[in-house]
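Example (one chain per record):
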Amino acid sequence: MSTTTRERVYDSDLPIRDDLAAAHGEVAKRWVHPGTWWTAAQRSDIVQQVRAARDHRANDGGALPPWVQPSTVDGLIDTDSPLPAAAVDAIWRITNHPGTLTQDWYTSIVERGVDPLAYVELVGVVAQANCVDRFADGLELPRVALGEPDAGPPVREGAPAAVVHHWVPTADIRFPNVIKALSAVPAENEALFILSDAQYVPMERVRGELINDQNSLNRPQIELLAARTSKLNECFY
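Predicted structure:
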């Protein structure tokens, strides 16, 4: 990827790797395209709600308590959001209180009208937005800009036969849960690997030595950073 293309993603003199900037740019493009279950306008608003949730936490004296649904707080959520209230509430809870999620809570979101497969896609986009934005925030860079959402309906195709494992539907594949989690919506699993390949290590190298042109840390150092980051992000995996 050329330097010119990278600078359109992050206008910075910092030595940001081209492949990393390219991965963030590719995922951001997907946010404004129709998804499998959500329209482009809805996917774009998922990202906007992630940003609103994080900014509210940073600028207004802390996050809402996890038991407070933002859709019930007067003036907090734009009334013209294309997302249903249950989706907005899920986005804020996943963004600010991931360690509080339970199966009963997930069931309550589904019972409020969010299809289980649509929930899987929503989780994928929320995770991507948090990942990309926190990179920019940490380096004090502008967040990746959102383009205008494309027209058209969700594609509603491409998902493999899904079976229920744990809380959500997943593809019937033999992989660790971290890989299976989004597998019922293949487009979101693909986006996961776009980010993971650039920010961690390509999947085909996971079982080998991780030192290469992409990484200067050795395997124990990389895993220590990953474990510490997961703890700080309340990841119970």
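Caption: The chain has two domains: 17-199, 208-237.
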